[in-house]
Amino acid sequence: MAFLTSSDKALWHLALPMIFSNITVPLLGLVDTAVIGHLDSPVYLGGVAVGATATSFLFMLLLFLRMSTTGLTAQAYGAKNPQALARALVQPLLLALGAGALIALLRTPIIDLALHIVGGSEAVLEQARRFLEIRWLSAPASLANLVLLGWLLGVQYARAPVILLVVGNILNIVLDVWLVMGLHMNVQGAALATVIAEYATLLIGLLMVRKILKLRGISGEMLKTAWRGNFRRLLALNRDIMLRSLLLQLCFGAITVLGARLGSDIIAVNAVLMTLLTFTAYALDGFAYAVEAHSGQAYGARDGSQLLDVWRAACRQ
């Protein structure tokens, strides 16, 4: 009897590259922690920790853009429906760009509210403000990248998400070291590095999506009309995922908020611990991505046997 079934192999074929590429995300956090931690005061690391938590809380509430896009795309892919594939890309992308533009435009009052909730040392909060004023300029690109990642996963183009995550995060790391250590831009340098990397990743992602659209026979006319259709279904699906994300982010956010009120040293230590914790979370997410893509494909193809095989393979792993 074979050690791995065909369903197991199919899952690992998509999961392995995603696990390794996902690990580059917390690696970026480790580099941020190491670079900012070498500055002459813990308030810098504390400020970045508060800023990163506020960013994670806000952006991860919108993680439904990635999750729902993967599911809807995988179903369209399984059903071999190019019009539905186009709709699964365009509708969430418009939603992401709209939400991102709104965050960027209204970032100052949102930052004021976030820092008021966090509380703590004025010095730490000032560094967090400097970080966020620049970091949230990347909101349109960051949210659009979630959609592109989800869509590329849904069509099971395993290499594309790997390239997106690895290239984007390596660029971010290089810019981080250069701007913070080389140009002495402190927390603003860390934020600017991420902004540049996010927009560069968006450009690469759009080029990859363009390639897939051609391969799948999706024309420009399909894309122009893809914004129409059942937007309500997308919003209803996203509502439930957003509630799940809210509860999860409240747990993680509480660690930073409570740490900030105990002083700059405590929040700096918590920043290191949270970065280490995310390694496991992001690695496991790589496998979750693969299960989403394969189960969505089986559901779209109305293949109950394949869907059951995916479920059994996921449980075995």
TrEMBL record:
<feature type="transmembrane region" description="Helical">
    <location>
        <begin position="12"/>
        <end position="31"/>
    </location>
</feature>
<keyword id="KW-0472">Membrane</keyword>
<keyword id="KW-0812">Transmembrane</keyword>
<feature type="transmembrane region" description="Helical">
    <location>
        <begin position="134"/>
        <end position="155"/>
    </location>
</feature>
<feature type="transmembrane region" description="Helical">
    <location>
        <begin position="162"/>
        <end position="181"/>
    </location>
</feature>
<feature type="transmembrane region" description="Helical">
    <location>
        <begin position="43"/>
        <end position="65"/>
    </location>
</feature>
<feature type="transmembrane region" description="Helical">
    <location>
        <begin position="266"/>
        <end position="284"/>
    </location>
</feature>
<dbReference type="GO" id="GO:0005886">
    <property type="term" value="C:plasma membrane"/>
</dbReference>
<dbReference type="InterPro" id="IPR002528">
    <property type="entry name" value="MATE_fam"/>
</dbReference>
<dbReference type="InterPro" id="IPR044644">
    <property type="entry name" value="DinF-like"/>
</dbReference>
<feature type="transmembrane region" description="Helical">
    <location>
        <begin position="241"/>
        <end position="260"/>
    </location>
</feature>
<dbReference type="GO" id="GO:0042910">
    <property type="term" value="F:xenobiotic transmembrane transporter activity"/>
</dbReference>
<keyword id="KW-1133">Transmembrane helix</keyword>
<dbReference type="GO" id="GO:0015297">
    <property type="term" value="F:antiporter activity"/>
</dbReference>
<dbReference type="Pfam" id="PF01554">
    <property type="entry name" value="MatE"/>
</dbReference>
<feature type="transmembrane region" description="Helical">
    <location>
        <begin position="85"/>
        <end position="106"/>
    </location>
</feature>
<feature type="transmembrane region" description="Helical">
    <location>
        <begin position="187"/>
        <end position="209"/>
    </location>
</feature>
<protein>
    <submittedName>
        <fullName>DNA-damage-inducible protein F</fullName>
    </submittedName>
</protein>
<comment type="similarity">
    <text>Belongs to the multi antimicrobial extrusion (MATE) (TC 2.A.66.1) family.</text>
</comment>
